[in-house]
């Protein structure tokens, strides 16, 4: 027997990075059978009485690498590349990340569907993507801030906001804001993030209001975009629970509602509501440290973000952030606190409460598990509740006022138009869950009590809503984007009725009535930047085109058959 057999079962000799491995004898390796070494030789060779010889095999083996070594190597490469890029940037004068960072929201705010592609725009983003639906929230450097106007010009803008917008939708207290304005304006900078954001929000709103009255709102829209960019630059710094931080976030959300994408506004509303809850603003607390005025300001700010929360929830069909069962704050009171129209604001709050119930009872996951009959019962109850709200809100302004040109509609009238269209959107969301059997023909519009039945009510209100397009300032896109979903809901209801009832005597007039809205959709869809950025617009455009083609064929087919019949 060879000497190798006595060196162990599997002798191995190591030299440097070489390893001598003996796994099987020559005969077993040749026959490709299992080798079972023993002291006298392997079991197979002993059994067949053959010569058992082990030939050591030299194999080169590298040291075993630790787990995750590839990931560590990638991190090292990225670190080296980052250090190299920083060195390169430091050698180029004036090259700073802060000079390149802007926000995508600026492009959204300044987008105007009626503006030619060659018009000057606020610079588009290169790095910073907040607030953008597809981005992750990461700590960002502040964008290059734009210079504020002179104090006299800024004071005019501030007063314009408080004399118009804030009077109907109270977000700031005028006395407190002006006190801070005179104390801090000359030294305003992003270091005081809450004040900086609030100031720029007020300036942006003022330029938006001026744009509503201008024949060419491009300049005012660009200035509004500049100031909202300043405010958005400190969003990541608004993480301290203070009422001014809540006001800033709510103000930015209000402005971003008038953009093609509702997602940024939704995220800002959620952040504002979390800060408000951290301040216990959703509770009616009796804190001796708070004066009556401070308590009233807290209520108004909370209810403002509450209204936005419910509106965005029903618009996107996503859960709201504030449940009605987890709050007990009182409604704003009609006190001498400024010149606010509390009645109009409280009507907005009442509608927001109903909007929350519509989502909860008809569009939530729990509602989806119920039967159609159960949702229909809930829809009937909500329709009745909404009718009572409309009766108390008195949303029937004179028809002549609604037909004014866009440049003349301002002040309280524009806020009533917005509230009315919000009501119509809510009504259409309820109407979708009413069974077809309760939706009567146009000739049967009155119930025995003299009230419009639910199906006919939604159809009649939808016709009124489409007519309101003429009352909006077409030169400014913010109003259009903010209310586009309401117009779409009304147009969809009319088109659905035409496909189901092409014999209606109002069929041809309804098709003619929808032409301004369809032209508006086509105008918006022609801008490739807007069309690619707004998923909501793409969905509306496709749906309305399909419904309009179907309704047009049905109505004209019936008209042709009627003509042939009489001939």
UniProtKB/TrEMBL annotation:
<keyword id="KW-0479">Metal-binding</keyword>
<dbReference type="GO" id="GO:0000981">
    <property type="term" value="F:DNA-binding transcription factor activity, RNA polymerase II-specific"/>
</dbReference>
<keyword id="KW-0539">Nucleus</keyword>
<dbReference type="Pfam" id="PF04082">
    <property type="entry name" value="Fungal_trans"/>
</dbReference>
<dbReference type="InterPro" id="IPR050987">
    <property type="entry name" value="AtrR-like"/>
</dbReference>
<protein>
    <submittedName>
        <fullName>Fungal specific transcription factor domain-containing protein</fullName>
    </submittedName>
</protein>
<dbReference type="InterPro" id="IPR001138">
    <property type="entry name" value="Zn2Cys6_DnaBD"/>
</dbReference>
<dbReference type="InterPro" id="IPR007219">
    <property type="entry name" value="XnlR_reg_dom"/>
</dbReference>
<dbReference type="GO" id="GO:0006351">
    <property type="term" value="P:DNA-templated transcription"/>
</dbReference>
<dbReference type="InterPro" id="IPR036864">
    <property type="entry name" value="Zn2-C6_fun-type_DNA-bd_sf"/>
</dbReference>
<dbReference type="GO" id="GO:0008270">
    <property type="term" value="F:zinc ion binding"/>
</dbReference>
<dbReference type="GO" id="GO:0003677">
    <property type="term" value="F:DNA binding"/>
</dbReference>
<feature type="domain" description="Zn(2)-C6 fungal-type">
    <location>
        <begin position="24"/>
        <end position="54"/>
    </location>
</feature>
<dbReference type="Pfam" id="PF00172">
    <property type="entry name" value="Zn_clus"/>
</dbReference>
